[in-house]
Structure formats: structure tokens, C-alpha cells
Amino acid sequence: MVNMERQLAQLEQMVEQGDYFCVNRGRQYGKTTMLSLLKGRLEDCYIVFSVSFEGIGETPFMSAEALAYTLLELFRDNIEYGETKQVPEAARQLISEAISSCAGEKLSVLKLSKLVSRLCAASEKAVVLLIDEVDRAANYSAFMELLGMFRDKYLKRPERPTFQSVILASVYDIKNLKLKMRPQEAHQYNSPWNIAADFDVSMEFTRADIAGMLEVYQRDYCVGMDIPAMAQMLYDYTSGYPFLVSRLCKLLDEKVAGTEKFPDRSAAWNGEGFQEALRLLLTESNTLFDDLRKKLSDYPNLRRMLYELLYEGQSFPYNTDDEILDIASMFGYIKECEGKVMVSNRIFETRLYNLFVSEERIHSAIYTEGSRDKAQFIRNGRLDMKRILERFCVHFTELYGANEESFLEKSGRKFFLFYLKPIINGTGNYYVEARTRDEGRTDVIVDYLGEQYVVELKIWRGNAYHERGERQLLEYLEAYRLERGYLLSFDFNKKKEVGVKEIQLGERVLVEAVV
């Protein structure tokens, strides 16, 4: 596991300050793990009730009274199973008597509020409440009433005993819960959680976090990996998204190691083994990717924004006052980079590209041509990128040469990626260097059987601009330590010379294709 000391120390400080807050991050971001670790850390100084709305069914959310009763039942379960420690006998008795006196498994919110005050007053230590899987309650007005009770008690806590801290965990930020509620109910509620402190704790893993985890693994298994290089690769592709880091490591350890090509762990923990784990991850079905697809279906405008960002090169200023950008950020799909929107990590980006390709490939003539041509591009186990560009130029000119310039400028990158996808599918991967998307060019990095190919896609805007693009590509090749690079120019000049040629630039070769 990654050492979470840094994050836990920040959370503990918020509890000491008496903060009420919501740990809201994307799906499988380590929220439940974080609450579990925090509970263990707090138990010496606090009485901690830790409950979850997962697995309690729908009935508790049908009314505020049913939810209040269920919460009390969960408190009793915590005590009976020894999950909440050092609860005084008087506090135990209060909960048991309250449950016994309830009629029809219902308890008014007012009575729950009074019981919380009596419970906290009877306890020698301050009481902390953790509630996980809050999203399960997000469709119901009953939960909003419960939040209203927490808010009321927070505001009155100088006079009335109450929880030291209430911590919720969910994907949805509490301020966005109305997005999930029924329209006829949502308008009734403003912000019952406006007393909450901002949750600014970074839950992404840093390179150092990942390296620390790998060092522990190395001590256990002695695989001889280059820890800084492996940590860098994991971070480069995941941007520290906890599930993605863990999943890649798990695939390397359990699925890649022990295969014919990687017979043991020592053979797997390197760049080539990493690429195999990445291929497995990008082709598997898991809860994170399933949820991504569901969210794109639930929010058509979210899908449209991501499609325009990735395939059409649209630039969006990062502005969370925009509801769709706010939702995308809340789900963990985008982040801010120099004031602009970018997809959170390469894996999400590649998965989105693959999804959009799969949805449109049946109607895409250029995808069909890539499938037909595939066999001629693999020579001695290596990808012949020059030949790919040659054939793409032919097909692109035949299929789209007569289209309007505005159409081609908008769709050029999509057509190349559509052509490339069936060629490398199942063996290689590609991603787009995000920082180049809105600079009139796109750098596509292709990983194929341990080799990398950098292809710059750009629109022709004159010789000076073109020469600058060549220099930029050379700098990129130097950064990747590659001797050969590829440039695909979309030229709308009717006198252009279509085709592929090689240019020697210093010690490096540039293969340039013009369509």
C-alpha cells in the first residue's frame, strides 16, 4: 500500500478543529480505505461511529423517520460488533432504549437530534461520525433532512453537545446532490451542508508515494526493478489516480508475471512488462470504466464536451461555474492545466478514444481501410509507421479529398486515429500529448511492442509555422530519445504535393506526410 500518513495527518487536523466535511472524489479513489485508516487513527482520542449506506436497501430512504431509525440501528451494530470502542454504558443504554421505544422502525429527526446530544454528553471522549457511500442516499429528500439536522446541531454546538466532527464520503459533492434528486424535490433544498469545511486534501499519489510502495514490494520480492523509472511510468499514465496505480501493479504482479514472455516477477517489472499490463487494463471491463460509460450515457453534454476536447481539438477554459465542467471535475474525469481543461490522465483519455472509436467504427470508411491494411504494416515484429502514413494519405485523399476545408480541419485528427486504431489494436496503445491539443498540432505517441513512435499531426499554416513545427518535433524526439519522428500535415492548398518523404535534420530523420 501507499503510505497515507500525509493525508491522514491533514484529516486528523480537520477533526481536531471540529470540521464537518465531505471526502468527495471520483469513483474508486480510495475514499473507503481513507475512512478506515482514519478511524483507526482517531480511536485513541475519540469515540468513532463508522457507518455505511451501502447494503441497507431502499426502505431506509423512504422517509426521514426511517432513515433516522436506521442510523440508530447502525450505531448499535457498531457497538455490538466492537467496531466502536470505549462507549460508556450510559451511552449504550441510551441507544438500546431509544430503539426499543420506536414504533414501526421509525424515529423522528427531532428525537434523533436530542438523542445525539444526550449520547455525546454521556461520553467521556468527543464523538466523531463517519458515513461512507453517501451517494446511495443522494436521490432522496430524507437524507437532505438528516443533513439539515447535522447543520442545526453544528450551529448550536456552543450550547448543546453534538458530534466533534461529521465526515461524509461520496463521489458527489454535497452541493451537487440536487443533480441526482427528482426535479420536483430538488427545488425545495438549497444547501443544508453549507457549514462544511472545504476538503482540499490531495488524494492523488505522487511519484514519491508510488516509489515508496514499490520499495516495500521490492524488499518483499527482490525483483530488481528500477524503482524511480517504474514509479515515473506509473505516474505518467495515471497522474496518481489511486485505483489505476493499484490496478496496473496488480496486473503486473498477477497477470503479466508468470506468462511465457515474462516467466517471473523479475522479468515483468520493466518497461515492456508495464506496456503489457497497460494493454490488459485498457481492454478489461472493471467497475471504474463501466461507471465512466454510464456517466457518459447519463450526461450527454458531458460526453459531447469530452468528444470535442479529444477529437476536435476544442479548447475549454477551466471554469467550474460551467455545470458540465463542474460535473466532469467532480467525477475525476478532467483537471485544470494552465487555466484550461484536460482529461485527468492518459488511461482515461485512451479509454475514451477507444470508446468513441468503437461507437463510430461501423460507419467509418477510414477505420475499415485500416483493418484491411493491417497485415502490411508489421515487419519483423515492428510497426512500419512510414508505410502507415503512405497508405493513410492514399485513403484520406480518396475518401475525403473533396470535402470542405472546415470539415477536414475539424476531423483530420479523428480520421488518422480511426485509421490507426485497428492496426495496433490488441498489441499497442496510443495517447495524445495533452499540452499540444490546442496549439494547432497534436502529438500522438504510439507504444507498440516496447517501441515508441511520435507522430505530430498539424494543419499547414505556411512555411514559417511548418518549420517551427519541425523544430518542436525534434525537441520532442530528443526528450523521448528517438532517432526517427513522423509529421502528418493537413494542407488545404490546392497546389500541395501529396505524399511522404524523408528529411534528414541533424542526427535525426523526419518522415513527413502531406494530405
Describe the structure.
The chain is 50% helix and 15% strand. With 515 residues, the chain is an alpha/beta fold. The strands form four sheets. Strands 9-10-11-12-14-13 form a six-stranded mixed sheet, with helices on both faces. Helix 14 packs across helix 16. The radius of gyration is 28 Å and the shape is elongated. The chain starts with a helix and ends with a strand.
* Radius of gyration (Å): 28 Å
Computed structural class: alpha/beta
CA-to-CA gap between the ends?
A: 50 Å
Low-confidence stretches: 181-189
What is the molecular shape? elongated
Count of runs of 4 or more consecutive helical residues: 20
Overall mean pLDDT stands at 89
Number of strand segments = 14
The largest sheet, given as strand count, sense and whether it forms a barrel, is: 6 strands, mixed
Fraction in helix? 40-55%
The share of residues in extended strands comes to 5-15%
Keywords summarizing the entry:
515 residues; 14 strands; 20 helices; single chain
Can I get a quick summary?
By secondary structure, this protein is an alpha/beta fold.
What are the SSEs and their pairings?
Elements: H1 5-16, E1 21-24, H2 31-42, E2 47-52, H3 64-80, H4 89-101, H5 109-122, E3 127-132, H6 141-155, E4 165-170, H7 183-186, H8 207-221, H9 227-238, H10 242-256, H11 265-268, H12 271-283, H13 287-298, H14 300-311, H15 323-330, E5 334-337, E6 340-343, H16 346-360, H17 365-373, E7 378-379, E8 382-383, H18 385-400, H19 405-424, E9 428-432, E10 441-448, E11 451-459, H20 463-480, E12 484-490, E13 499-505, E14 508-514
Parallel strand pairs: 1-4, 2-3, 3-4, 11-12, 12-14
Antiparallel strand pairs: 5-6, 7-8, 9-10, 10-11, 13-14
Helix pairs in contact: 1-2, 3-4, 3-6, 4-5, 8-9, 10-12, 13-14, 14-16, 17-18, 17-19, 18-19
